[in-house]
Amino acid sequence: MKTGSVGRNALTRNFYDQPTLEVARSLIGARLCVKPGEQTISGIITETEAYIGEKDLGCHAKSGLTKRTAVMYGQPGMAYIYFTYGNHWMFCVVTEAAGIPAAVLVRTVVIDQGLELVSRNRGHVSRKHWSDGPGKLTQAMEIDGSQHGADITNPTSGIWIEEGRLIPEESVTIRPRVGLYNVPEPWKSIPWRYLVTRKTNLEDLWDY
DNA sequence: ATCTAGATGACCT
DNA sequence: GGTCATCTAGATG
User: Which of A4, A47, A109, A179 has the most CB atoms around its CB within 10 Å?
Assistant: First the structure.
């Protein structure tokens, strides 16, 4: 958990090679880690969304295989990172076997390592809002297009996810995905979003 | 606390 | 040219 074991419990390819909804649920409580330099920045994942296949009209793969979505068609456990709204990087992990375009978007983490770096990146807002949104967490953790396609199962890539906390079922809420304003039903309202309930004291997730 | 509007650029049609 | 898997500041109750 501390310095000595960083990267040793990285989730393996088998983990991501599962139905996307299972991966999205299982990632709640896991620890997303990056190592841009000497120091590691990490956070416990508390919100995810699933995007599954070409039929899912909320998923980028609805347009088929393009330059942008190619990573989603490849091996599970790779980083699918894209730029949107002219400002924001989004971080996703590819799921399911090669050929099936699907991914899990990480929407919120609670920072538990690298507080100094994150404070530098996000110090202009209160700690509560450091990484409570997909665009915010990439800014906090220094994730951008340069990590697109990175192997999340291999810590030497500089970005990985490791075992974190076990979050019990009663602490996980399932809701429709966010931000799909013009997506037709049933995709707009399908409950493929997982988040830790508000009642859960997020400070319990901190190591400090 | 809740809402609205504008930013800003890659991607797809 | 329209659409975005969003964020922030500023206004309003």
Answer: A109
